[in-house]
Design goal:
By secondary structure, the chain is mainly alpha-helical. The protein contains nine helices and three strands, in the order H-H-E-H-H-E-E-H-H-H-H-H. The protein has one domain. The protein is globular.
Amino acid sequence: MNNTKSLLLYFIPLFSFMIFTFSLVALGGGRNLFYDLIPLIQAPLYIDLLFIFFIIPLAIIIVGLCICPLITMLYYGIHRIYRLFSKEHGYGVLELKENIPFKRLFYRLIFPAFLAISMGMTFNFTFSTSPFLNISASPTFQIFMASIFFSVPTFAVLAPLWILDDSGIICFLKKDINYRRPPETESISRFYSNAYKGYTGITFAFSFINVIFRSVLTLIIGLHNYFEFLLIFLLIGFPFILSSYFVPFCIIYEKYMNKFVKILYKVAKVDKIDNVIEKIE
């Protein structure tokens, strides 16, 4: 099974489940299509749902096609500036195989989802919800909505790491070449992904604990009903559901990966690693 089929099998059930769940919440209690689900968007319900399920995924594709290549070049430029005062470092292109396992694609999809939810839990925007479900002040549902909005900017900062990874551009210590030992190398994408991983891990853990504590407290004092706990359980699986937003662009990227990488090569102007080492020697 190729990666496109695997991605579609991953995308269809998760995105369908998300449409069903959010539509159920939005239309609860006999609300009609003119109910305003998102006060931030002054529009009736059907526009809000269109925004969540169509405009946001479309925005992710547009950002991936137009913005991500620019951010990739920015990342590369920042790394070059960071190493500017270190003459011991060089850059080269390591030839990579074109095959990629699905678990690697899954990691690429789930990482921006976790970061988006971390941002959503950190800022916790206020949105209205269905009074029928008695969660009109639910902080957990606010997180769902905020995470969807944050999926676009988080994707914009993380998807360029795909291009950096697939380009095979690495940074290495020149002095190691003259000795009988492998040169110390550094993937440019890892330079950024480690920082994002640290932020995501810390904020997600602390924010999730805060959500549980706040929900239990509001339940005890009678501000929310037991539906809040159902939302918390949904929040646990929400990174997988939210990751389906990134699948359409991932399919496009896998098909045209070489074109994305060539754009970076034109700017970086880096030779193959073997040729670079020969010139140094």
